[in-house]
Design goal:
478 residues; alpha+beta; Leucine-rich Repeat Variant; 3 domains; two-stranded antiparallel ribbon; 13% strand; ARM-like; ARM-type_fold; HEAT repeat domain-containing protein
Length: 478
């Protein structure tokens, strides 16, 4: 492997480009040499980073800047503030928040920088240090009242990363009305993010409940963002639903709060809080006569986690739960949707028996030309349900093999035009998803609107894990 000669300090942008043009491995000696030169080359390396036409991969120049550390701080801040494209701001901001510095106090002046993205990147530097940034809590508090909402959100995340070491200062700030409503509101959100409802004082909890009661009076149902799974039972007897799922301590909430909690818990990956995804469940009010249950109970979650075959255990839990619910309520359904891929699934039970179970990712090709399947083929079990009539199932392809011959894969508009043309000419049915089946059999939570009949009130209820560990941390929409 040939190694380029390393130049002396005082390089300009072109010389740095020459040194850093190449692969990650080939440029290692040059990167190490530039790091040693530090302040003498920091500005030139920033210029390379900010050049979207540069032959240098931006991660290579970012590595140099991060290791140079403090001398790159101000040049990067200037690059963020003067960026003429979102990509340049992203590159410079990424590097700015990750500088290898001995003391994060060097970021403090940037917390008052006139450009909001610079302030946000400085907050990210403190966020990365987690609990170690607790000594800076007092200097981070003003950022909770920043005029820019993105900076305020970044400040909340910084306090969330700091954790319990920030609670005392945040509570004290909440008790100081002279600080202004915006910063006190930010402190409230940060408190919830750090410790959940338990971190709030009695006055704040009472205020939240009053606001919830007011909002519920005029709330108009809105479509929920669907990512996860939910059950549907044909009843307005909420107490019976809570008992069926072994839920307790129900707290009345708006639909918006319930949906916020479900989405937050569904995407909880914090290993420090292992029960965040199974501590609570959102039980809806009766929606057009159906009660929907969003989330995972303790028993179901841990039964799946402890199984040798998690996929098999998941299906078994869903089927048994649906059968038990339908025995109690006459019918029950379970639905699943993902916002990150094409997964969709449903399970339908009537009178104590599962009559249909479908999982798009497990289903195998099969059945007759009408899409019906009379046997069990992986995730496509049981005869097709009447609710599926007139649809293709997600794993079925109704298009001929040559339907898109000659259409370049790089031209999505041409592909879409051919798709619509062939679909119309051949009368190919639409593909159904869990929401389509739910709309026919019960309620599609992704289509709630002012026409949805709402009876009763929704609640956040604790599972066995929740009753032991409390509500997950995190601020919820009201």
């Amino acid at each position: 492997m040939s190694v380029r000669p390393v130049r002396v300090p005082g390089m300009d942008k072109d010389q740095v480009t020459e040194q850093l043009s190449g692969s990650w491995q080939d440029t290692r000696p040059a990167r190490d040499a530039l790091v040693r030169q530090g302040a003498a080359v920091a500005t030139a390396v920033v210029d390379v980073l900010a050049d979207e036409r540069s032959p240098v991969d931006w991660t290579i120049s970012a590595d140099v800047l991060c290791r140079i550390g403090e001398p790159a701080l101000l040049p990067l801040a200037q690059a963020v503030a003067s960026a003429d494209s979102p990509e340049v701001a992203r590159r410079a901001g990424w590097s700015l928040g990750r500088l290898d510095v001995a003391d994060p106090a060097v970021y403090e002046p940037l917390l008052k920088h006139p450009h909001p993205e610079v302030r946000g990147d400085a907050l990210f530097a403190f966020q990365r240090r987690g609990e170690a940034a607790a000594r800076f809590v007092g200097r981070l508090l003003p950022s909770l009242g920043d005029p820019d909402p993105k900076v305020r959100q970044r400040a909340v995340w910084a306090f969330e990363a700091i954790g319990a070491g920030a609670l005392s200062a945040l509570r004290h700030l909440r008790e100081q009305p002279a600080t202004g409503p915006r910063i006190r509101s930010g402190a409230l959100e940060a408190l919830a993010a750090v410790g959940g409802p338990a971190a709030l004082g009695r006055r704040d909890q009472d205020a939240w409940r009053r606001l919830t009661r007011i909002k519920r009076l005029t709330e108009i149902p809105e479509a929920l963002h669907l990512c996860g799974s939910w059950y549907a039972v044909p009843t307005g007897d909420q107490a019976a639903v809570l008992e069926a799922f072994d839920l307790g301590d129900p707290e009345p909430v708006t639909l918006r709060t319930g949906a916020s909690a479900w989405n937050q818990d569904q995407h909880a990956w914090d290993r420090k809080r292992p029960h965040a995804c199974c501590a609570r469940v959102f039980v809806s009010p009766a929606l057009d006569g159906w009660t929907l249950v969003f989330g995972h109970t303790s028993q179901d979650t841990h039964r799946i986690e402890d199984a040798d075959d998690e996929d098999g255990a998941f299906e078994h839990v869903v089927r048994r739960r649906c059968a038990d619910l339908s025995r109690r309520f006459g019918a029950a359904q379970w639905y699943g949707m993902s916002c990150g891929d094409g997964w969709t699934a449903w399970c339908i039970a009537e009178g104590g028996e599962v009559v249909r179970h479908y999982d798009a990712f497990d289903a195998e090709e099969g059945g007759d030309e009408d899409g019906e399947n009379g046997g069990e083929t992986g995730g496509d079990e049981g005869p097709a349900h009447p609710a599926e009539a007139g649809y293709l199932l997600p794993h079925q392809d109704g298009f001929p093999d040559d339907a898109f011959a000659g259409v370049p894969s790089s031209d999505p508009e041409a592909f879409r035009a051919r798709y619509e043309q062939v679909k119309e000419e051949l009368g190919i049915p639409d593909t159904c998803y869990a929401t389509d089946i739910a709309a026919r059999l019960s309620v599609d939570p992704g289509a709630l609107d002012a026409r949805t009949r709402v009876t009763g009130r929704g609640v956040l209820a604790l599972t066995a894990c929740g009753r032991e560990h409390g509500h997950p941390a995190g601020a919820l929409a009201v």
